[in-house]
């Protein structure tokens, strides 16, 4: 094993990486590759555990909502014609109907006290709010002549009817969707399994005996980001510059994960072993380096049916690359419906000017605010690709395409961070 790895390191000196690609080309290559990678398997979970999961089935209504005609408020139910005929005498009260009661048909010439959500008795065609009536000697009188057919009655199926599509497969579930499932009597729902991701950092500088030991930040940053997307993330740190040690870690991670992510070790230094080790494992390069800033070193490879994202070692660049490449891929792997990019962008007026280099697409950390009815997008100061403080102050990114510029006062669109 050691000999083959050393041979791989030597051959790396003569290996010619694919030409650096433009940002949009890199995204197109990844999207095309995604078409040939199967979605994750599905499983059934209880609806109490379904929040944050992605539906693997369509949900159609097996019953309407409301299930029957119901009262929209506390009041009195009767026939409009009966009340008009009774005039100043009013209608005698025959009883009260509460939510959950199965009322008998309405007899001619009487009214019922009715509570919000209670079924309308057959024959009643109107509900007048309690505060618009008066009760004397067991009779209900109208304080104003406002009774009309259908008043304050929620009709069966006015929200949705039996057979209507409620939720489509690919919908990521949250608090808005779970009441629908409960209403339809769903105790369990089919969802895509949570993806398993291994995040690997490497370098002797993370070892306890290093003379200039560093705190490893990237695996924590990336794990937290991807866990918020529903992934099951395992963090590994190879605390040496040994190719053999790195191979052991990456080989183990490849067996355990649906997606493999590395951070650092992908440049051209003598201790940058990630790419040669992955090639020795059989990984094929989809693209090597992207004309973007920050994040130029990003490399994406394919190991069988598994994608390997090799992110830069600088934390800021690693975070931005993960937002732009890993998160969208992860959502696709679990079948999540991809909303149109335009609908995900937030528009506002730029408070700054910027000119991108002719061959580099730039992503700028920005902060979105609403001020006196205007949407403003402000540049967040950054010291470069290693900056993690600026990420805490930013709410998203503004993309400036290669050779393009943005002037203060112009409208621009922010890509919000996935948090």
UniProtKB/TrEMBL annotation:
Class of enzymatic activity (EC top level): transferase
SMART domains reported in the protein's UniProt record: MoCF_biosynth
GO cellular component terms, A-Z: cytosol
Catalytic activity field: adenylyl-molybdopterin + molybdate = Mo-molybdopterin + AMP + H(+)
EC number: 2.10.1.1
Pathway the protein takes part in: Cofactor biosynthesis; molybdopterin biosynthesis
MoaB/Mog domain span: 198-332
Pfam families documented for this protein: MoCF_biosynth (PF00994), MoeA_N (PF03453)
Entries under SUPFAM superfamilies matching the protein: MoeA C-terminal domain-like (SSF63867), MoeA N-terminal region -like (SSF63882), Molybdenum cofactor biosynthesis proteins (SSF53218)
GO molecular function: metal ion binding; molybdopterin molybdotransferase activity
One GO term (biological process): Mo-molybdopterin cofactor biosynthetic process
Cofactor names: Mg(2+)
Keywords per UniProt: Magnesium, Metal-binding, Molybdenum, Molybdenum cofactor biosynthesis, Transferase
Function as written in the Swiss-Prot or TrEMBL entry: Catalyzes the insertion of molybdate into adenylated molybdopterin with the concomitant release of AMP.
Similarity remark: Belongs to the MoeA family.
Protein name listed in UniProt: Molybdopterin molybdenumtransferase
Gene for this chain: moeA
């Amino acid at each position: 094993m050691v000999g083959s790895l050393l041979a791989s390191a030597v051959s790396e000196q003569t290996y010619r990486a694919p030409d650096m690609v433009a940002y949009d080309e890199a995204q197109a290559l990844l999207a095309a590759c995604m078409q040939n990678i199967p979605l994750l398997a599905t499983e059934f979970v209880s609806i109490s555990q379904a929040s944050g999961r992605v539906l693997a089935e369509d949900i159609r209504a097996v019953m309407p909502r409301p299930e029957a005609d119901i009262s929209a408020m506390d009041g009195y139910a009767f026939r409009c014609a009966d009340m008009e005929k009774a005039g100043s005498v009013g209608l005698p009260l025959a009883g009260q109907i509460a939510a959950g009661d199965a009322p008998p048909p309405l007899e001619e010439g009487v009214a019922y006290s009715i509570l919000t959500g209670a079924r309308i008795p057959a024959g009643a065609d109107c509900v007048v709010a309690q505060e618009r009536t008066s009760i004397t000697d067991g009779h209900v009188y109208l304080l104003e002549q406002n009774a009309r057919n259908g008043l304050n009655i929620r009709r069966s199926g006015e929200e949705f009817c039996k057979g209507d599509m409620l939720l489509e497969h690919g919908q990521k579930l949250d608090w808005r969707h779970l009441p629908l499932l409960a209403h339809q009597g769903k105790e369990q729902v089919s969802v895509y399994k949570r993806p398993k991701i291994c995040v690997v950092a490497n370098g002797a500088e993370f070892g306890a005996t290093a003379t200039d030991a560093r705190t490893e930040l990237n695996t924590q940053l990336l794990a937290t980001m991807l866990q918020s997307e529903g992934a099951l993330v395992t963090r590994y740190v190879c605390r040496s510059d040994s190719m053999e040690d790195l191979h052991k870690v990456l080989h183990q991670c490849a067996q355990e994960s649906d997606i493999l992510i590395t951070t650092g070790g992908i440049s051209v230094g003598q201790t940058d072993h990630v790419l040669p080790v992955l090639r020795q494992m059989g990984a094929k390069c989809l693209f090597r380096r992207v004309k973007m800033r920050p994040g130029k070193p990003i490399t994406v490879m394919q190991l069988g049916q598994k994608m390997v994202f090799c992110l830069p070692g600088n934390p800021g660049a690693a975070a931005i690359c993960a937002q732009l490449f890993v998160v969208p891929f992860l959502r696709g792997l679990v079948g999540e419906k991809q909303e149109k990019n335009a609908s995900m962008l937030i528009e506002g007026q730029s408070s700054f000017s910027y000119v991108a280099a002719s061959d580099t697409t730039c992503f700028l950390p920005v902060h979105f605010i609403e001020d006196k009815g205007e949407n403003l997008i402000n540049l967040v100061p950054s010291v470069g690709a290693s900056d993690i403080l600026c990420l805490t102050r930013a709410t998203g990114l503004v993309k400036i395409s290669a050779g393009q510029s943005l002037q203060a006062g112009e409208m621009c669109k922010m890509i919000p961070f996935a948090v």
